[in-house]
């Protein structure tokens, strides 16, 4: 396959980037909003990674539907496509995939640190934030216990009904 640029254009009505969404809400998000956005983001990133597409994620390249909180990813300009070919070294491909998974979960950690108020290494969180949310954040901060995207989707925070 030769190198080529492909533009896929869509006019996503009622979507704004996550940075704008947070600004419009004056940084006053509910835990339910953060949970829905995070879950949608994890599903979207897992979908990309399962197809060999790895990308950096930040608040300005995540689109959020203003009514449903459905998440879309945009701006794949810096994305990396990792596909196995016969002449590729399997260990190299495995190392690239492992790094991409780490970088993706690190981006999620940074994103949650922006969405859930915190001060330095000690969390300062409104009392309304659940212990399940704190547990996920702790796992993301601890490199040794950091979860895969699939494991995150099974975390108790996404199973628990959160008050709005």
From TrEMBL:
What are the recorded GO MF terms, alphabetically? ATP binding; protein serine/threonine kinase activity
Could you tell me the superkingdom of the organism this chain comes from?
Eukaryota
Question: What keywords would UniProt list here?
Answer: ATP-binding, Kinase, Nucleotide-binding, Serine/threonine-protein kinase, Transferase
GO cellular-component terms in the record? cytoplasm
Enzyme Commission no? 2.7.11.1
Q: Where is the Protein kinase domain?
A: 1-164
SUPFAM superfamilies from the entry? Protein kinase-like (PK-like)
Which reactions appear under catalytic activity for this entry? L-threonyl-[protein] + ATP = O-phospho-L-threonyl-[protein] + ADP + H(+); L-seryl-[protein] + ATP = O-phospho-L-seryl-[protein] + ADP + H(+)
**Pfam families under this entry?**
Pkinase (PF00069)
Its name, as the record gives it, is non-specific serine/threonine protein kinase
